[in-house]
Structure formats: structure tokens, C-alpha cells
Design brief:
21% strand; alpha/beta; flat; three-stranded parallel beta sheet; disordered N terminus; Rossmann fold; two-stranded antiparallel sheet; 23% helix
Length: 82
């Protein structure tokens, strides 16, 4: 599919998700009718910023859940979310 400066040739705006949708599948399917969602595949922060200039250059919105910002605090199983 050829890309335009604002999304895809289908005319749908391209949006970027940091996590795949697992629970709200009906709403995700509805979202796909009006947008072209894509899940981040970058393996590191540095790679993500590089990908923003190339692979994700046509993205018009980014969505991140609180779970995608999980930070490991210690060797125990505790996680912090923001």
C-alpha cells in the first residue's frame, strides 16, 4: 500500500499503539473501520525514535496504556505503573 503524508492511501489516518489490543476486540475492530492502527515493533527507545523518522513517519496519533509504561523496580515481582 502506498503512503501519503497523512496516513495511508486508503485515506485512513495511521495510529500507533504501544501494546496490542487484548480485551476490547469489538471496539478495536470498529476502530479499524476508520483508522489504520499499527503496533510498535521497535526493540528499543533508540530504535523507536529512528523508526519515527521512517517507518512511523505517517502516524497522526500515538496511544499508550498505563501498562505499556511498566517499570521494573526491583528483583521482586513489583511493578510500577504511571
Amino acid at each position: 500500500m502506498f503512503k501519503t503524508t497523512r496516513g495511508t492511501m486508503s485515506g485512513k489516518p495511521k495510529i500507533l499503539l504501544f501494546n496490542p489490543v487484548k480485551h476490547a476486540l469489538a471496539q478495536y475492530k470498529e476502530l479499524q473501520e476508520s483508522t489504520a492502527p499499527e503496533v510498535v515493533t521497535s526493540g528499543s527507545r533508540e530504535e523507536f525514535f529512528k523508526d519515527c523518522q521512517t517507518k512511523y513517519k505517517d502516524v497522526v496519533a500515538i496511544y499508550r496504556t498505563s501498562a505499556s509504561g511498566a517499570v521494573r523496580l526491583s528483583p521482586s515481582s513489583m511493578w510500577a505503573y504511571y
